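Summary of Year 1 activities. Much of the first year was spent building the evaluation harness for sequence design. The harness presents a backbone, in tokenized form, and records the residue chosen at every position. We chose the following record to illustrate the format because it has been used consistently in internal testing since the harness was completed.
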């Protein structure tokens, strides 16, 4: 069954507030809430949750999806949603077009979209969405193998896209995980989106090369630092897989390798996302702990990007999830109190009308 069929009529067709100073950029002092986007495995759909203090998050729409993955994705499911606000005031979400349980759900006859030779997950596409109010969204699908067939026509996967404004290029940069060849290893790439956020304009290029060529890397997150540099967290699939970081003066090139992991887990985790506490010189690193059951998120906090203090997991420490469980691969941005209240009011009214 399609999730939220009525919402597909509304749809007409990846951490941190983007920082460049332009007329529509809202200063941090006017921000009053946090918006958390995530998905979960049972639905492969998009969820949104709001927090006014940065510690306790409550999902809108009574904890149900706000957009069904089956209404926007070729594989009838999305993963890894990342949200960003650009200097033009618009919101952008990038997601993986992939349903890992497609065969079990009767969506396809095979385990994966293509032959098993392309490896686990072997999808080809990303979903790009744009909105001015967090309620009404346009969307478009981008298939990397079709857009760039010469070098990526046989790619194994395209996962976990995230978006950030590149002030030097004056464009939105989309960076994501690619397995360029069947059964190759995953690496991190970047590209630039067109102005309408409907397609990628430039062929993907490598963000960096990991020192050990046998190790797969994935799930990058880039956070602007107060001094103008960029703090990139990512996952190295070692034993256990965990969160590492690099620092660069350039938004799209990294070589500052650090061998240590900065998460607080002894078992595998992925999907890092870093966001600033409003009005404080504190940054929270959030990540998905895929190695626990049920799935949960872990959190550490830093003031200097060198030392990280554990905050625990959702509902096991300072961070609380009030009406949802087992979130997967999320992102957090600042929004104003007015935007938060409008979003809550919209979904409260939608559910009230549905009950009539």
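For this record, the design step produced the sequence shown next.
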């Amino acid at each position: 069954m399609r999730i939220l069929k009525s919402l597909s009529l509304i749809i007409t067709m990846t951490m941190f507030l983007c920082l460049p100073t332009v007329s529509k950029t809202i200063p941090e002092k006017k921000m009053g809430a946090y918006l958390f986007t995530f998905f979960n495995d049972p639905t492969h759909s998009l969820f949104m949750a709001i927090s006014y203090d940065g510690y306790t998050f409550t999902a809108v729409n009574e904890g149900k999806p706000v957009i069904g993955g089956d209404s926007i994705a070729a594989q009838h499911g999305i993963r890894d949603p990342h949200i960003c606000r650009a200097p033009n005031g618009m919101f952008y979400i990038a997601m993986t077009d992939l349903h890992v349980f497609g065969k079990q759900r009767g969506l396809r006859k095979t385990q994966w979209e293509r032959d098993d030779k392309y490896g686990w997950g072997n999808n080809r596409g990303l979903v790009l969405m744009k909105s001015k109010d967090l309620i009404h969204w346009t969307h478009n699908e981008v298939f990397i193998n079709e857009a760039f067939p010469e070098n990526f026509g046989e790619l194994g996967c395209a996962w976990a896209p995230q978006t950030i404004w590149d002030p030097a290029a004056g464009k939105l940069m989309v960076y994501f995980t690619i397995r360029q060849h069947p059964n190759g290893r995953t690496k991190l790439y970047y590209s630039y989106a067109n102005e309408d956020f409907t397609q990628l304009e430039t062929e993907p290029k490598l963000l960096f090369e990991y020192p050990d060529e046998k190790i797969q890397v994935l799930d990058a997150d880039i956070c602007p630092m107060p001094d103008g540099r960029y703090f990139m967290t990512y996952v190295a699939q070692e034993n256990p897989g965990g969160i590492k970081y690099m620092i660069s003066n350039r938004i799209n090139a990294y070589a500052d390798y650090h061998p240590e992991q900065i998460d607080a887990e002894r078992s595998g985790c992925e999907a890092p996302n870093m966001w600033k506490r409003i009005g404080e010189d504190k940054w929270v690193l959030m990540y998905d702990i895929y190695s626990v059951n049920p799935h949960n998120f872990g959190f550490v906090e830093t003031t200097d990007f060198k030392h990280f203090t554990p905050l625990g997991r959702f509902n096991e420490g300072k961070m609380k999830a009030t009406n949802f469980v087992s979130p997967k691969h999320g992102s957090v941005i600042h929004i104003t109190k007015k935007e938060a209240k409008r979003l809550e009011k919209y979904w409260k009214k939608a559910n009230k009308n549905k009950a009539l």
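DSSP finds four helices and 20 strands in the chain. Quantitative recovery figures across the full test set are reported in Table 2.
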